[in-house]
């Protein structure tokens, strides 16, 4: 007893401890990977953050640079200008003092007063700016001090004196010396201011450069991150999908053992798992199919063996009976009464019938089996051979057998002996059911890849209601039984089975009392012109073969002697 | 006339052949299996042997091979009796060295004519 292959059950075991039965009755493995959406969005988030960072760095850099420029333009430069103004004021004062001392014009006294006011305003402005800058503050203080020395020691005493009186050379020298100190102090302050402006300019350009560098750095980092993400997406998304595609292709090519790996994103894992389940199910179905085919083959062989054994077991006693009957007939030849001869004849006739039945059963079993030896056969020659076979039998009852076949060979792929048997059955039936002196026509035509054998007789015909039962085992037409025409009821069935095995068809049309037409259609072998047709075997070898019985079948049952 | 060996495990068929060939005046030696057939061939030196294919123990085909292996019996005409008529069986029969074969059920008259034909050919 063979065990049936395991059905379900094992399918889910691979899924591990968390096998979940799905609504389709299958099992789905626990899927552990991340979904595609999450993988992609994490990458997008990183790229987004870096993009934002780039923008931020750019904006901050621009603001810082702008502030530096603002400081330069709005603070340092006005202060430097005010510092220049201080020297101008002092120069104006010096000019006013000189005008006053030489001419005594009242306008010069006004000029001096205004210049003094401007000077203190400008000095305040510069002092304000210099606060917090120690070097600048010291220089500014030095300048103010020198200015004060000049004002207190020379300008103020000159202005206080009578205008137009002129200054003494000694006073002039002292004033020039004091102004020289002022100029020197001013040059120092101007130098410091130049230094400050230069520093501020450098700061601005440094900030701009830093901004550019920072933006470039962030851009490079972003680019690196994108490249890394691309590699990661490849590894996490593309590669598992491509691997899965390879697996599917291998499955399609017939690799039944290959299974998809459970890697990659959740969706890919789910597809892989479903694919594996499908492959498992297919393997199980295939196993069942193989099992069924094996069982069928076993059954077929058993049936073949049974029929062969039974027919062998039947033939042995049949040989004995028919042999001894023959011996008895020989021994008593000429000494028997007519009724004894009739008894012996009836016995002999029925032994022959039994023999025919066993032969037909064995032939049918062989036709139903699959042990066929297909070879290219010329149907034209085969049909002519069959006609030759029946002509002798037909001639005894003066039945004319006409054959018409194409002159060229009609190649078909066939088991020669079997196909010959099928056509012989059809043709010998036509002869058997023909009236004495009748006509049987056999016409073979071949066109468009189909060969057609039409066998027509003008004999007994088949009753209308019985036509559809033709070809069922042991069926015999009622008029054949009434007319005592011998037969096993297997001939048509055998012919149909054999033609069916050759991918052909058998069609019947008949009218009782008018005749029967049988059409056998067979596929012509394509490109068979290149094939060498196997010549028919010598006829002598058929004398004891299955073909021999066909001749007996054609004979009308001898009339019982009155 | 001639000495003929008949081997068949079925007693009725053995006797049927024996009767028919005796009627024709032959000296018939009948045995029931293949091993006895080989022994009888060596001991009795028949002019012809009729062997059934399906016999218990040593089959007809095995017996033919054994007979053909013996140089003294290599030319002995042998007719096989077979219950099957498939071409492959017939081929096996001829391949193993049979001169003729007859399918069961056979007519004693047919067998007799085959025997006569083989005898006249070998003499």
Account of the 3D structure:
The complex is a heterodimer of chains A (562) and B (123). With 562 residues, chain A is α+β, with helices and mostly antiparallel strands. Chain A folds into three domains: 62-215, Four Helix Bundle (Hemerythrin (Met), subunit A) (Up-down Bundle); 283-371, Helix Hairpins, CATH 1.10.287; 373-553, 2-Layer Sandwich (Heat Shock Protein 90), CATH 3.30.565.10. Helices cover 64% and strands 9% of the residues of chain A. In chain A, the strands form three sheets. Chain A has a five-stranded mixed beta sheet with strand order 4-6-7-9-8, covered by helices on one side. In chain A, strands 1-2 form a two-stranded antiparallel ribbon. In chain A, a hairpin with a 2-residue loop joins strand 6 (439-447) and strand 7 (450-457). In chain A, helix 5 runs parallel beside helix 6 (266-331). The longest helix of chain A has 84 residues, at 169-252. Chain A is rod-shaped. The two termini of chain A are 60 Å apart. In chain A, 27% of the residues are buried. Chain B is of the alpha/beta class and 123 residues long. Chain B has one domain (3-122): 3-Layer(aba) Sandwich (Rossmann fold). In chain B, strands 2-1-3-4-5 form a five-stranded parallel beta sheet, with helices on both faces. In chain B, strand 4, helix 4 and strand 5 form a beta-alpha-beta unit. In chain B, helix 2 runs parallel beside helix 3. Chain B is globular and about 30 Å long. Chain A binds chain B through residues 308, 311-312, 315-320, 322-324, 326-327, 330, 351, 355, 366, 417, 541, 544-546, and chain B through 10, 12-13, 16, 19-20, 54, 83-87, 90, 101-109.
């Amino acid at each position: 007893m063979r065990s049936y292959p395991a059905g379900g059950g094992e399918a889910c075991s691979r899924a591990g401890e968390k096998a979940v039965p799905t609504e389709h009755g299958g099992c789905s493995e626990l899927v552990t990977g991340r979904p595609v959406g999450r993988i992609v969005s994490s990458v997008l988030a990183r790229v987004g953050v870096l993009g934002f960072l780039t923008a931020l760095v750019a904006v901050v850099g621009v603001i810082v640079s702008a502030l530096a420029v603002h400081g330069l333009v709005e603070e340092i430069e006005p202060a430097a200008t005010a510092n220049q103004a201080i020297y101008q004021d002092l120069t104006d004062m010096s000019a006013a003092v000189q005008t006053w001392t030489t001419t005594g014009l009242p306008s010069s006294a006004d000029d001096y007063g205004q210049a003094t006011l401007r000077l203190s305003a400008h000095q305040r402005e510069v002092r304000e700016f210099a606060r917090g800058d120690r070097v600048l503050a010291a220089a500014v203080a030095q300048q103010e001090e020198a200015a004060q020395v000049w004002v207190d020691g020379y300008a103020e005493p000159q202005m206080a004196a009578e205008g137009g009186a002129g200054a003494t050379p000694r006073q002039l020298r002292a004033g020039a010396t004091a102004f020289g100190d002022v100029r020197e102090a001013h040059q120092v302050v101007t130098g410091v201011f130049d230094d400050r402006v230069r520093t501020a300019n450098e700061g601005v350009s440094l900030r701009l450069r830093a901004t550019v560098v920072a933006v470039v750095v962030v851009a490079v980092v972003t680019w690196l991150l994108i490249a890394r993400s691309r590699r990661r997406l490849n590894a996490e998304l593309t590669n598992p999908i491509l691997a899965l595609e390879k697996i599917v292709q291998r499955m399609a090519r017939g690799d039944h053992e290959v299974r998809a790996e459970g890697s990659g994103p959740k969706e890919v894992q789910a597809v892989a798992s479903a694919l594996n389940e499908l492959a498992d199910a297919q393997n199980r179905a295939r196993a069942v199919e193989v099992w069924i085919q094996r069982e069928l083959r076993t059954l077929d062989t058993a049936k073949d063996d049974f029929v062969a054994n039974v027919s062998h077991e039947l033939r042995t006693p049949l040989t004995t009976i028919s042999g001894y009957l023959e011996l008895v007939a020989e021994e008593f030849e000429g000494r028997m009464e007519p009724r004894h001869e009739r008894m012996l004849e009836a016995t002999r006739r029925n032994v022959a019938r039994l023999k025919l039945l066993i032969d037909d059963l064995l032939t049918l079993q062989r036709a139903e089996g699959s042990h066929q030896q297909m070879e290219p056969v010329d149907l034209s020659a085969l049909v002519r051979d069959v006609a030759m076979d029946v002509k002798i039998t037909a001639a005894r009852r003066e039945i004319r057998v006409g054959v018409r076949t194409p002159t060229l060979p009609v190649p078909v792929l066939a088991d020669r002996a079997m196909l010959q048997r099928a056509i012989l059955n059809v043709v010998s039936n036509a002869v058997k059911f023909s009236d004495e002196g009748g006509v049987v026509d056999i016409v073979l035509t071949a066109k468009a890849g189909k060969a057609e054998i039409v066998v027509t007789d003008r004999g007994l015909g088949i009753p209308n209601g019985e036509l559809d039962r033709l070809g069922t085992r042991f069926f015999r037409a009622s008029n054949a039984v009434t007319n005592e025409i011998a037969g096993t009821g297997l001939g048509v069935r055998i012919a149909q089975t054999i033609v069916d095995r050759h991918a052909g068809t058998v069609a019947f049309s008949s009218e009782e009392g008018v005749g029967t037409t049988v059409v056998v259609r067979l596929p012509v072998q394509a490109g068979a012109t290149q094939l060498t047709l196997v010549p028919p075997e010598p006829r002598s070898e058929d004398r004891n073969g299955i073909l021999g019985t066909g001749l007996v079948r054609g004979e009308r049952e001898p009339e019982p002697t009155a | 006339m001639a000495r003929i060996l008949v081997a068949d495990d079925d007693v009725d068929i053995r006797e049927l052949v024996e009767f028919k060939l005796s009627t024709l005046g032959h000296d018939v030696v009948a045995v029931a299996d293949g091993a006895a057939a080989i022994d009888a061939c060596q001991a009795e030196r028949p002019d012809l042997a009729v062997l059934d294919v399906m016999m218990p123990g040593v089959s007809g085909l095995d017996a033919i091979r054994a007979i053909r292996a013996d140089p003294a019996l290599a030319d002995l005409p042998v007719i096989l009796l077979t219950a099957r008529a498939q071409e492959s069986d017939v081929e096996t029969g001829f391949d193993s060295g049979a001169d003729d074969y007859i399918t069961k059920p056979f007519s004693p008259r047919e067998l007799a004519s085959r025997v006569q034909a083989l005898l006249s050919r070998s003499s």
